[in-house]
Amino acid sequence: MGRRAKKAPVQTKKRATLAKQFKCPFCANENVVECKMDFRNSVGSVECRVCGASYQMPIHHLNEAIDVFSEWLDACEAAETGKVPGSEAAPPPQDDEDDSDDELPPPPIVNNRNESNKASKPAASKKSKKPKATAPAPTADYSALGLDDSDDSDDE
After folding, report:
1. Residue 129 has what DSSP assignment?
2. 146 Cβ partners below 8 Å, 6+ apart?
């Protein structure tokens, strides 16, 4: 008789820890920006110990320290470019020198009531219209592409 089988011990995976100290975008020193999360007051703040640069933003229970730091970096970029932080609008279109293509004809008006009126008109008015000329369909010339026709086999 054998012994009772033992359960294998459960191995827990180590969770990746997110950084709480970051590189300062102003003085470029490593691990000098600390993030403090005050969930009671719903405020997240980051501050550089060397140059004193700081940033605060409102947070909620899902925010992490990296979120506050990322928002700070986004606000710094927005301040450099002159954009309002949080607005993701596309830049205004650039006006080119040539204004001839700016003037487009008005779109055609489609009205279902007019189509029913056209059907009730006499057939004589339809005959007066000239038929539209259509271009012949281009024939495919596969010999120029170097492709052989697989149906023409001389193996018979």
Report:
1. S
2. none
